[in-house]
Design goal:
This protein is α/β, with parallel strands linked by helices. Helices cover about 40% and strands about 15% of the residues. Helix 1 packs antiparallel against helix 4.
Length: about 220
Amino acid sequence: MPTLTERLSKYKNSFAKSVSAEVLEILSRNISLLQKHQVRATKLGVGSSIEDGLIYGSKGNEVELDSLLSQAPLIITFVRGAWCPYCMLELQQWNKFIKSIPQPINFIAVSGELSTLSDQAIEDNKLGFPIWEDKNYRLASKFGLTYQVDPEMKALMLKWGIDLSLRTFSGDFVLPIPATYIIDKNHKIRYAFLEEDYTERAEPQDVYDEYKKLI
């Protein structure tokens, strides 16, 4: 099975050939802007503790982070939304990986998008796990992951028909930095992968290798 890194790289190369140089420059500037502002520097990292938070299912049911942590150490990955092909490739890879290992793992995916959109993404990508809804990015904000999309990137997204003000509860153009964490039963972060470059994601096998140390 190809690694997630290989699949992301293949898609990135294919995408680069399908769009104009102007679009690629905008995307590159957007990533550089986030890196320049050192968005990652103020985020929660390994050793930090996270307080409880709520996420929501498609039928409006609430789930407390604390209740998930009481079961076992938790792998939580934050994705930008169903519109993001890199996010969907990541979740597809997690789905395949989870099916390939003998024992179950405590894994959740979280998105700020409306649950109706996430439910469609689950169906389209044949995912065997839910995508929990993070209303108004309350949970992502606890991790310090959210940022305001810059005007140039916002204009490009609207041109592509991606209106975050309609796809999320926030009513604004806010996104989380894609990130993957392992949190232990004491709410302490034991592994953290976050990257301003949204085309890069944590490799499921690497995350699982760390997860096994806690179970």
